[in-house]
Design goal:
The chain is mostly helical. The protein has a domain at 21-55. 71% of the residues lie in helices and 0% in strands. It has helices spanning 10-31, 38-55. α1 packs antiparallel against α2. Keywords: Membrane, Transmembrane, Transmembrane helix.
Length: 56
């Protein structure tokens, strides 16, 4: 099973994962941080980044 709908190498997946992590953190700080701490977003996006790197 692939997460991305196109062929990519390791560095592509890392870059896309970091950009997604950045976007999630910005949205989290704007809308969710008053209810749930930021480290929850960090843990969730690191898990996603790991899945993205492994499965691509």
């Amino acid at each position: 099973m692939r997460i991305l709908p196109f062929k990519s190498n390791l560095w592509d997946r890392i870059f896309i994962g970091v950009v997604i992590m950045f976007a999630v953190h910005l949205l989290w700080v704007r809308f969710v941080e008053q209810f749930i701490p930021l480290y929850v977003a960090t843990i969730a996006t690191l898990i996603f980044l790991g899945m993205l790197i492994v499965t691509g």
